[in-house]
Write a structure and sequence with these properties.
The structure holds two protein chains of two kinds. Chain A is built from five helices and five strands; from the N terminus they run ααααβββββα. Chain A starts with a helix and ends with a helix. Chain A has two domains: about 5-55; about 75-175. By secondary structure, chain A is of the alpha+beta class. In chain A, helix 1 crosses helix 2. Chain A has a five-stranded antiparallel beta sheet. By secondary structure, chain B is of the alpha+beta class. Chain B has one domain (about 15-135). Helices cover about 25% and strands about 20% of the residues of chain B. In chain B, strands 4-5-2-1-3-6 form a six-stranded antiparallel beta sheet, sandwiched between helices. In chain B, strand 4 (about 95-100) and strand 5 form a beta hairpin. The longest helix of chain B is centred in the C-terminal third of the chain and has 17 residues, at about 120-135. Classes of the chains: A alpha+beta, B alpha+beta.
């Protein structure tokens, strides 16, 4: 009886990472029935992973930056004062917002807010042309922007699927 | 004008340079070194802590942080450099700069907007902090 997929993944990744899994999926000759089964399952996993990465596409860099935020901001007082840690809820909601952005919107720069541990997405188009939105525990996101001598602020609701029009229009204003 | 223990005047002049030590690498744009507004957002006590650094060299500013920007156990806080901004630019954004020595040369940025709606309050504070950060420059740690 073939081992479960989880054991195959554990063995491959544990031994040599994702490259090990891809190597197993590429084997061709001199295979027993069992080895052929393992190769087939590894190939299936690699194909699923590649499809996921292609769906992430140009947002991959932003999502990678998002994951990097956790290490430095995972404990209370990371700012030298009383900043709360960045929460997994805020990170997940930030990921949802990034993935909901139209392809015409460039990737944001990311930061963590010291007042409440929210994740901030910021777009910078030059001096005095900045817009940012903070994603925290609430479904309502605090936003602010400056465009030359104009500045504005507001609150936008986000249900996790469609990026708010207020956010998209603000970004388009400063990158225009 | 009376003097503080540091020897500085108790009133912060518009032309004075203020240093906000950046305790998160995410507050400084990786590619350009631009200061982001998070560097100036107030702490839960509604103050933003800064140091008056006019006339100090970059090495002296770093040394000052090592000695006075410390935790309760007197260990220096980890920081990535300083956001430098003139007091006049802080005041132009509607925030005051008030000397507050405990640590030498320490001051607070005070007067952040308030609103009963927490998200609306935060959005207004983001706007103000963005205006201030837009006038700030980054001084790498020496």
């Amino acid at each position: 009886m073939p081992e479960p997929i989880s054991l195959i993944v554990f063995t491959a990744v544990g031994m040599s990472g994702a490259a090990g899994l891809r190597d197993i999926s590429n084997r061709r000759s001199g295979l027993s029935d069992y080895a052929k089964y393992v190769t087939h399952e590894a190939k299936t996993l690699v194909e699923k992973n590649d499809r996921s990465l292609s769906m992430i596409g140009p947002r991959g860099a932003a999502l990678s930056d998002l994951m990097d935020l956790k290490g430095e901001h995972s404990y209370r007082g990371w700012d030298g004062a009383e900043a709360p840690p960045v929460s997994s809820v805020a990170l997940n909601r930030a990921r949802e917002l990034i993935m909901s952005l139209p392809s015409s919107i460039p990737n944001p720069e990311l930061a963590v807010d010291p007042d409440d541990g929210a994740v901030s997405l910021e777009w910078y188009a030059g001096p005095s042309r900045i817009f940012s939105v903070s994603v925290g525990l609430s479904l309502r996101m605090a936003c602010a922007g400056i465009d030359g001598t104009d500045s504005w602020h507001g609150v936008a609701g986000f249900d996790g699927t469609k990026a708010p029009d207020f956010v998209i229009q603000s970004i388009q204003r400063i990158i225009a | 004008m009376s003097s503080l223990p540091s020897g500085l005047e108790d009133r912060v002049h518009d032309a004075e340079s203020l240093a906000r030590f950046c305790t998160s690498s995410s507050w400084v744009a990786k590619t350009t070194g631009r200061i982001k507004h998070q560097a100036f957002l107030p702490a839960p006590d509604d103050d933003t802590s800064v140091y008056r650094v006019s006339g100090m060299s970059p090495v002296e500013i770093s040394s000052h942080a090592e000695k006075h920007f410390v935790d309760p156990e007197n260990q220096p806080h980890k920081h990535h450099g300083a956001a430098i901004v003139e007091a006049r630019n802080v005041r132009a954004a509607g925030i005051d700069t008030l000397a507050h020595e405990g640590p030498p040369r320490h001051a607070n940025l005070r007067g952040w907007p308030r609103h009963a709606d927490p998200e609306l309050q935060k959005s207004k504070r983001k706007e103000v902090a963005t205006i201030i950060a837009d006038k700030a420059s980054f001084l790498a740690k020496s």
